[in-house]
Amino acid sequence: MIWEVFRRERQGQPFQHAGSVTAPDRTFAEIYAREQYGRRQESVALWLVPRDAVQEVDEFPDEFDLKYRRVDGYSIKARLKEARERAGTLES
Amino acid sequence: MSAQERSRADLLLELADDELILGWRNSEWTGIAPFLEEDVAFSSIAQNEIGHARALYELAAADLGTTADELAFDRGPDAYRCARLVELAFVPDWASTVARHFLYETADAVRIEALKASADDAAAGVAAKIDREEVYHRIHAEMWIDRLGSEPQVRAALDRLWPYALGVVDDALRPELARRVEEKLGWTNHDVEPIERGEHLPELTALWEEMTVVRRSAPAGTQW
């Protein structure tokens, strides 16, 4: 079976997907992940997740192009300039 | 010979030679192990063993007024003190490799524990460092035995290699080795003669030729 491996590079950092290992059970997976993603001190911790346990979500319909849901839907530059003029903090 | 009758350097060389030769033998699986993950793991274990050999050679070299490299590569095959268990060439026989791996790691654990508890602080310190890596070798060996230990090929190999495994440790440690092997397998053969260190197998010469070919091709002290 396939195990997805996530690794944490340093304390406090998020776990990131590192790759996967094929292993018949949890013990084999742990040893193989340790050897492939940890033996050069490149990780401080690993997560092993059976691939079957991963629920993939990969559809994100946006049929009506709802730009206003995104921060880049607004052009903030002109508004910011106006606001600064009103406040008297415009740099020039 | 018991541990008391050999010099410290000789004892360290037994350990170091075992680790170097087994590391070499295990590395023969690199690229052709049963599957990719195992290839990486087994190669890594082989590299660890050679790292342990280096640390032990350095300790012995200080006693003998030489260097780790000279001890590892400049002696003739007859001067090596390794046990015959590590000399056996197994590729492409994975069943025997797994059997030796388990028996060797178990024997190594017993003698490394004894060394850790010894009054020799420098050797005990190196033993403690080695043991922290050997933990993972043992987990790896035992998981293979859990999977394959009752398969006829592995079982036959364990039975065949058991007298060799007894030869890895001193007389005094053999009952403990037998206890641990029996605990894991549920059986051991009590009616065998240990194959003691001393004489080498012809396979060791072939390994030595290959292992030292680069060293012998260039004058000592060549910088790479």
Task: Note down, in words, how this protein is organized.
The complex is a heterodimer of chains A (92) and B (224). With 92 residues, chain A is α+β, with helices and mostly antiparallel strands. Chain A has helices at 26-37, 76-87, and strands spanning 2-8, 16-22, 45-50. Chain A has a domain at 2-53: Phenylacetic acid degradation B (Ubiquitin-like (UB roll), Roll). A three-stranded antiparallel sheet of chain A has the order 2-1-3, with helices on one face. The longest helix of chain A has 12 residues, at 26-37. With 224 residues, chain B is mainly alpha-helical. Chain B has a single domain (3-189, 198-217), classed as Ferritin, CATH 1.20.1260.10. Helix content of chain B is 68%, strand content 0%. Classes of the chains: A alpha+beta (92), B mainly alpha (224). At the A-B interface, α1 of A face α2 and α6 of B.
Q: Provide the residue-averaged pLDDT of chain B.
A: 95
Query: In terms of quaternary structure, what is this?
Result: heterodimer
Structural class, judged by helices and strands of chain B?
mainly alpha
How much is the radius of gyration of chain A in Å? 23 Å
CATH superfamily of chain B: Ferritin, core subunit, four-helix bundle
Strand content of chain B: under 5%
Mean pLDDT of chain A: 90
* Amino- and carboxy-terminal Cα gap of chain B: 40 Å
* Highest CATH level, the class of the domain at 2-53 in chain A: Alpha Beta
| Series of secondary-structure elements of chain B, N-terminal to C-terminal | HHHHHHHHHH
Helix content of chain B: 55-70%
Largest sheet descriptor of chain A:
3 strands, antiparallel
Parts with pLDDT < 50 across at least 5 consecutive residues of chain B: none
* Major β-sheet annotation of chain B: none
Shape of chain A: elongated
CATH class of chain B: Mainly Alpha
- The best one-word shape of chain B is globular
The chain pair with the largest interface is: A-B, 13 and 13 residues
